[in-house]
Every structure is written in structure tokens, then in C-alpha cells.
Specification:
One of its GO terms (molecular function) is biotin carboxylase activity. The protein has 445 residues and is an alpha+beta fold. The chain is 34% helix and 26% strand.
Length: 445
């Protein structure tokens, strides 16, 4: 097993990784920006090293500074968490070329899945269902119109190099496509350094369902369970559930089989997620993208399987066997995760500030993965996620009841927060029915 680990991230995911590493007897090294010096993850690591100012490009995305910290601290391995450098193939290669262990998938797999057009073509060749769309980038508006005409309106205009719900727009006709194409292309060039645009069919009513996979050290790819991620704002997730209320045994079998095919097609190792769109009217699902890292919502999979996915990542990176029997992986109960963000609960606009009050709920079946505490400050430099409130119950109704109580018992003062939105959602008839889709939040507003 790895003996020392540098965590190349911040906030709640850094604390989450450190917690498991400590349990396994692994020495931890935190890197942090000047703005994050007082956050809990810095104090909880065995060693902490400042890698630059608040600007992520000069700290958490500063490859040279992070590698220098790994060398000076004597760290043996690097865990990237999610975001920042977690899906940067060049960083993964740099880690390994410096003699360190990369706690993540092979760099070639990251590269293969990082471009949405290349990814969908690879998946189609492997027999994984993909939505009707362009096999090549639409390099001009004319090419986009030609592709949309063949696919049929409405279409989704997507940044090929995008991720996290960014760089996407819907076009219902040629005029809208002309306008949205230029916006998406310019955004993609600015944000990702790649203006390539993909045209795909848009499904007005769809559910977002994903499957957790693990590429084991012995070469096998194992699919765990599915997660429902349809409660979204601006194409970004707010709530996740496991299992999905839309997925029965036969559909689950097809989902898991497709996820294994996807992982095997790129020689996947370590933790990853195969994201799909599900048409609830037909039961058809289509590959959306593969996230080549640990997901924000991994705790709900942990709870229904009784696993620690960070431990499994470390086992795989160390060349060890899994801590569970892949041939006898059972699930039980129901888990829900709520992303507690520093944003107003109506328009979901960021609202950073100093945390005056921070009281986390507790009780059976309640887990809080947090990045902040009273006296710390949520700055405007990073993602607005403050904590993840995760509940586990005997069934979905029990989990929802626990979520209601936990939301009511979570006290935050200082930064804005979206707890009132969750209180509303957990009483919403559409959500309670389990028959909802990615448009649920817009219908609530």
C-alpha cells in the first residue's frame, strides 16, 4: 500500500481523501493556496504546503508547484480529487514521469475521454449506445446546420472539450443554431482552449443516470450501481440518488453492461463514471460522457454498497486486490446527496462570505462531507460547494424523511446557501413521486 499521499485539491474532497488515508495509516500532504490557509483540510493533513496565491492557475492548477511540493515532502503518490488537474492527462503523465504514483486512470484513457466527439466515436465502435449526433466537429455554422438537418431539431450544441455541464446550448431551429453555435464556439475557445463543437439530438424530457465503474489492478472493469442525477441547475447537479427510481432490474443490467464495455474500450483503471441520458418514455439510454476521476457524488454509491471508494482507488493504485468481492456485490437501502452551495436558493447565484455559524446535522444515516467550519471564509475564487449532505435510509421514503430532518438541522450563517431550496424540493410532489427529469428545477422556478 502507498505510504505517503499528496492531495492535489482543496475543501471537502481533500478532507474526504485525508480521512480515508489516515484510517489506512497513510501519511498525507495537503497543498493549498494563500486564500485557503485556514480551512480544515490544511490542519488535518500531516503536512501542508502553500503552492501559490488564490488564483487557481497559480496554485491548484500549478503543475510545477504541486510536483515540487510532492518532492520536498517525500510524498509517494498524488490523488487529484475532482476538478482542477484531475482530468489533465499531461499532469498525470508528469506525476508518473517524476517517479510518483498517480491515483487515477491511465493518461491515455483521460485523453481518449476528454474530447466528447472522440469519446462518442470510441463508444459507438465498442457497442455502447450513443445519441444521434455528428461524428466529426462542426467546423462552421454551415456544417452545424447540415448536421442538425440530418439529426433533426431540436439539437444540443456542445463544446467537444467541455465538461461539468459547461459549454452547452439548445437550438430548436436553424436561426437559433446559427446564434448558439457562435456562442458555444467562443465559450469553448475561451474556457477550454478548443473551439470544437459537437451537434447531438436534444431530448426535451430526459433523465441523467450514471454508473460508477472501477478498473481493478488485475485489468478487470467492474460496474457498481447507477446514480440518478436529474436535479440540476444550468446543467449542473444539485441532488443525486442511488439507486435510480427510473431503473428496474433489466434496464440496470443493460446500464452496467454498457458501462463495463465503455471502461474496457479504453483500458480503464481506477475510479470513473459513465454518464448517460435516459429517455423515460422508451427506456433507451445513450452515452453522454465518461468522467475519468472520482465524482462529487461518490458517497451515495459508497453507502448502498458499504464501500470506501477512496480506499479502493488507493488499493488499485498500489496494485492490490479490491477490498470487496466483485462477483458478489450487493446493494441495500437508498441514499441521497444534497450539494450545499454558497449561493442564493432562488436564482442560484454565488454568495460567498465569512462563516459565522456552521452547525452540521447528525444522527443515524446522516453523513456530512464538508470543507468549511465556523470562522472560515468562502471566497469567490473557487467552486461554491461548501458541503455534501448525504443520507441513507431503508428505502427512498425513509431517506427522504431523513433528508428533511437533516436539512432542517443544518445551520449556516454568513454566506448565502441553498438549504431553503432543498427544503422545498423535499416537499415537491414531482420529486416525491420519483417520476421526474432534468427539467424539474426549472418547473419549480
Amino acid at each position: 500500500m502507498i505510504e505517503s499521499l499528496l492531495v492535489a485539491n482543496r475543501g471537502e474532497i481533500a478532507r474526504r481523501i485525508i480521512r480515508t488515508a489516515r484510517r489506512l495509516g497513510i501519511r498525507t500532504v495537503a497543498v493549498h493556496s494563500e486564500a485557503d490557509a485556514d480551512l480544515p483540510f490544511v490542519a488535518e493533513a500531516d503536512e501542508a504546503i502553500c503552492v501559490g496565491p488564490a488564483n487557481p492557475a497559480q496554485s491548484y492548477r500549478n503543475t510545477e508547484a504541486i510536483l515540487a511540493a510532492a518532492k520536498s515532502s517525500g510524498a509517494q503518490a498524488v490523488h487529484p480529487g475532482y476538478g482542477f488537474l484531475s482530468e489533465n492527462a499531461d499532469f498525470a503523465r508528469a506525476v508518473e514521469s517524476n517517479g510518483l504514483v498517480w491515483v487515477g486512470p491511465p493518461a491515455d484513457a483521460i485523453t481518449a475521454m476528454g474530447d466528447k466527439i472522440n469519446a462518442r466515436n470510441l463508444m459507438a465502435a465498442a457497442g455502447v449506445p450513443v445519441a444521434p449526433g455528428s461524428a466529426d466537429p462542426a467546423g462552421t455554422v454551415a456544417a452545424a446546420i447540415e448536421a442538425a438537418t440530418a439529426i433533426g431539431y431540436p439539437v444540443m450544441v456542445k463544446a467537444a472539450a467541455g465538461g461539468g455541464g459547461m459549454g452547452m446550448a439548445v437550438a430548436s431551429d436553424e436561426a437559433a443554431l446559427t446564434s448558439e453555435y457562435e456562442k458555444v464556439r467562443a465559450f469553448a475557445e475561451r474556457m477550454f482552449g478548443d473551439g470544437s463543437v459537437l451537434i447531438e439530438r436534444y431530448f426535451p424530457r430526459v433523465r441523467h443516470v450514471e454508473v460508477q465503474i472501477l478498473g481493478l489492478a488485475d485489468g478487470r472493469v467492474v460496474a457498481l450501481s447507477e446514480r440518478e442525477c436529474s436535479v440540476q441547475r444550468r446543467n449542473q447537479k444539485l441532488v443525486e440518488e442511488a439507486p435510480s427510481s427510473a431503473v428496474g432490474p433489466e434496464l440496470r443490467r443493460r446500464f452496467l453492461a454498457a458501462a463495463v464495455q465503455a471502461g474496457e474500450a479504453v483500458g480503464y483503471r481506477n475510479a470513473g463514471t459513465v454518464e448517460c441520458l435516459l429517455d423515460p418514455a422508451t427506456g433507451e439510454f445513450f452515452f453522454l460522457e465518461m468522467n475519468t476521476r472520482l465524482q462529487v457524488e461518490h458517497p451515495i454509491t459508497e453507502l448502498i454498497h458499504g464501500l470506501d471508494l477512496v480506499e479502493e482507488q488507493l488499493r488499485i493504485a498500489s496494485g492490490e486486490a479490491p477490498g470487496f468481492d466483485p462477483g458478489n456485490l450487493a446493494t441495500s437501502g437508498h441514499a441521497i446527496e444534497l450539494r450545499i452551495n454558497a449561493e442564493d436558493p432562488k436564482r442560484f447565484l454565488p454568495g460567498p462570505g465569512k462563516v459565522a455559524t456552521w452547525v452540521e446535522p447528525a444522527g443515524e444515516g446522516v453523513r456530512v462531507d464538508s470543507g468549511y467550519a465556523a470562522g472560515t471564509t468562502v471566497t469567490p475564487f473557487y467552486d461554491s460547494l461548501m458541503a455534501k449532505l448525504i443520507v441513507f435510509g431503508a428505502d427512498r421514503d425513509d431517506a427522504i424523511a431523513k433528508a428533511r430532518a437533516a436539512v432542517a438541522g443544518f445551520e449556516i450563517a454568513g454566506p448565502k446557501n441553498n438549504l431553503p431550496f432543498f427544503a422545498e424540493l423535499l416537499e415537491n410532489a414531482e420529486f416525491l413521486s420519483g417520476d421526474y427529469d432534468t427539467g424539474i428545477v426549472s418547473r419549480m422556478r
